[in-house]
Write a structure and sequence with these properties.
The complex is a heterodimer of chains A (207) and B (528). By secondary structure, chain A is α+β, with helices and mostly antiparallel strands. Chain A is 22% helix and 32% strand. In chain B, helix 2 runs antiparallel to helix 17 and helix 5 runs antiparallel to helix 7. Classes of the chains: A alpha+beta (207), B mainly alpha (528).
Chain lengths: 207, 528
């Protein structure tokens, strides 16, 4: 390769075309990593896996009340880096499986600006989730609270009569997360009425 | 380190003034200089990562918390993993590639000499980022080397430093790989067909393709974490409609081929050493090439066997289980070929051969525990226990590291022009193999009994095995310093090495004098 300063040798040309091809491959693979995001989303939808809100918001199949036993449902509230107050109005209720009950949570925004949050439920024991059917819940959509606003939000639910006999207590815990970016948008936009009821979330997931 | 050439070696016609002192190493474009720098860098990072491992083992010497607090402990496991994988093992094999591939295929240098310099000098900043992240508020990344969200979305600036370090290391290894592929494809001496290449070149060609295919995916995954952390995206943030499990899928799409990025060059080194000390050509050369390629291809379609416990349909679990077991077939082909190479050979047991046989024996053991883990039903019990730790240290330490030692002892005479101290080399081998097994064999029992990994404390019934493992780890750590002594002694002097110090060795690298002159094969050799 001592001749390289006088002009490109055949090897130099070959090397350059290999370099370009390999660099394009690396760039394409970087894009491939991002392409996996919609791909998995679609795959999970098609295969119906990892669907955290399965059965939520659908009409219960069985409304027969099983009055032979009762279940204690405890309510818990958490905040993740949100300047809100958030607590259940009643700490727990006792219901019969199949019986529709309504409880309320109280939430207030302590900040002097509108903030949008999203509540994520979790269940203890986790297996109780599939027997817990919600007819209405504030967690179905994002909630925007105006500055200093206090609001009561309902959950209407029933516990399926097919709940295993060994489960006598279910704890339902909600954690409110701030929706990144949505708070600032909410502050500006007039579209979102307080309570955020005007629109369903655009995401395919409804919580 | 490469001997600095005397004036007699400057027979080439484009005269240049070589800077001296530190600038020689900063500006060098010579593949041998860069190879040496890679090897020294990886050894330094091996010591740093090793000290972190010893902090972990010191904490686990006894039940209870005594040496470090749990947060530091988690930072140690994370940095130990990142540094050993990206800072020690990968650069070590890139160092071998830089030094040996041009010599083995009869090329004068790597294809892109300046890019080669750049890809090395990206490494020290990444190493500094990773190690100084221990000092920032909140400490270093403490999520484990896999950097799973949601932990990684929440941690402090140490996490950002780890992400940038991974970016830099990724760019460096992609550039190194582009260089290796181009060199092997375009710069072979006349007559050196692909199927005549030494197997080490073949394994690196395949590895380099793997790096180009998967390192960008890792870069994408950590970029998503970065934008989730700072720019309001929600790839992995459940509150914004993202999914933390998605990260695991993307990460392991990179992570499983990464395992072979580490293992395949190790196969290549062993495939050079075993024939040399068996005084027989490698058994089944073509099948070795095909087996290595099949391992590389299969590595793309088995990633979710790292995720059996995160939730997957049964059909998915079955598919990933059988696909994983399929990899045992080409791997078995390789192991049997190495054994068949030794069969009825005139064996001698110099240090490189000892490390290769140690590799063969212990890597196979690690492969077997991998087969155990590949079974979904068993893995649910063993997931995230010390059984997994034992398994991957058998393939990473006894596999990749032992093979790197085999290669280092094998080529030290070529690099330095001196024979190494055989007695010290053998001492290094025997200390390593005894302490290695003492450290990691007992971890199989700990894992089977249910001791979880990445936890600084444990239940009392695990105390004895942990004590044995910790003593073994300190023994292993200290015995690695023997290698440093051997290498330094070998650079400074020792018996003069001939051009071909191993009588059974084959290949173009043994046709140039020892130490290899600064410039070799300026006129390509002709291979018949």
């Amino acid at each position: 390769m001592t001749q390289s300063f006088q002009g490109e040798s055949r090897t130099d040309r070959l090397n350059r075309s290999t370099l370009i091809r390999l660099m394009i491959s690396a760039a394409l693979m970087f894009g491939f990593g991002y392409a996996l995001v919609p791909f998995y989303d679609k795959l999970c939808q098609v295969l119906d896996v990892n669907n955290l809100n399965k059965d939520e918001g659908t009409i219960p199949l069985n409304t027969q009340v099983d009055s032979s036993r009762s279940v204690t449902v405890e309510f818990d509230a958490n905040l993740h880096k949100l300047p809100w107050n958030f607590k259940p109005v009643n700490g727990s209720v006792v219901v019969h499986p199949g019986e529709v009950a309504t409880v309320e949570y109280e939430v207030s925004n302590t900040r002097s600006e509108a903030i949008t949050g999203q509540a994520i439920p979790s269940y203890t024991p986790p297996s109780a989730m599939q027997y817990f059917q919600k007819l209405e819940c504030f967690c179905f959509r994002q909630q925007t609270l105006a500055a200093g606003e206090t609001r009561r939000m309902p959950i209407a639910f029933l516990v399926s009569p097919s709940l295993p006999k060994d489960i006598s207590t279910i704890t339902l815990s909600y954690t409110f997360f701030e929706v990144p970016g949505a708070s600032a948008a909410a502050a500006k936009s007039a579209d979102v009425v307080p309570g955020g009821l005007k629109q369903w979330p655009t995401s395919s997931r409804t919580w | 380190m490469a001997a600095i050439p005397g004036g007699a070696d400057h027979a080439h016609d484009h005269a240049h003034d070589q800077p001296s002192g530190i600038m020689r190493w900063v500006t060098t474009t010579n593949h041998k200089d860069i190879g040496s720098m890679y090897l020294w860098f990886s050894f330094a990072m091996f010591i740093v990562g090793g000290i972190m491992a010893l902090v972990i083992r010191a904490e686990l010497f006894e039940p209870g918390l005594q040496v470090v607090d749990p947060d530091r402990f988690n930072q140690m496991t994370t940095l130990h993993g990142l540094i050993m994988v990206f800072g020690a093992i990968m650069p070590a094999f890139v160092g071998f590639a830089n030094w040996m591939i041009p010599l083995m295929i009869g090329a004068s240098d790597m294809a892109f000499a300046r890019m080669n310099n750049w890809s090395f000098w990206l490494l020290p900043p990444a190493a500094i980022l990773l190690s100084t992240s221990l000092l920032v508020p909140g400490g270093a990344a403490a999520s484990g080397w896999t950097l799973y969200p949601p932990l990684t979305v929440q941690m402090g600036m140490g996490m950002d430093m780890a992400i940038f370090a991974v970016h830099i290391l990724g760019i460096s290894s992609i550039m190194g790989s582009i260089n290796i592929v181009t060199t092997i494809l375009n710069m072979r001496a006349p007559g050196m067909t692909l199927m005549k290449m030494p197997l080490f070149c073949w394994t690196w060609l395949i590895t380099a393709y793997l790096v180009i295919a998967v390192m960008p995916v890792l870069a994408g995954a950590v970029t998503m974490i970065l934008t989730d952390r700072h720019f309001g995206t929600s790839f992995f943030n459940a509150a914004g409609g993202g999914d933390p499990v998605l990260y695991q899928h993307i990460f392991w799409f990179f992570g499983h081929p990464e395992v072979y990025i580490i293992a395949i060059p190790a196969f290549g080194v062993v495939s050079q050493v075993i024939p040399a000390f068996s005084r027989k050509p490698l058994f089944g050369y073509a099948s070795m090439v095909y087996a290595t390629s099949s391992i590389a291809i299969l590595s793309f379609i088995v990633w979710a066997h790292h995720m059996y416990t995160v939730g997957m349909p049964v059909a998915g679990q079955l598919y990933f289980m059988f696909a994983t077991m399929l990899i045992a077939i080409p791997t078995g082909v390789k192991v049997f070929n190495w054994v068949a190479t030794m069969w009825r050979g005139s064996l001698t047991f110099e240090t490189p051969m000892l490390f290769s046989i140690g590799f063969l024996f212990l890597f196979t053991l690690g492969g077997f525990s991998g087969l155990v883990l590949s079974m979904t039903a068993v893995d649910v019990q063993l997931h995230d226990t010390y059984y997994v730790v034992a398994h991957f240290h058998y393939v990473m330490v006894a596999g990749a590291l032992f093979s790197a030692y085999a290669g280092a002892y094998y080529w030290l005479p070529k690099w330095t022009g001196h024979m190494y101290d055989e007695k010290l080399g053998k001492l290094h081998f025997w200390l390593s193999i005894v302490f290695f097994n003492m450290t990691f064999f007992v971890q199989h029992f700990l894992g089977l009994a249910g001791m979880p990994r990445r936890i600084p404390d444990y239940a009392l019934q695990f105390a004895e095995f942990n004590k044995i493992s910790s003593i073994g780890a300190f023994g292993f750590g200290i015995s690695q310093l023997v290698f440093l002594v051997v290498a330094l002694k070998c650079i400074r002097g020792g018996a003069k090495a001939s051009a071909k110090p191993w009588d059974g060795a084959e290949g173009l690298e043994w046709t140039v004098p020892s130490p290899a002159p600064h410039h070799t094969f300026e006129t390509p050799p002709v291979i018949k």
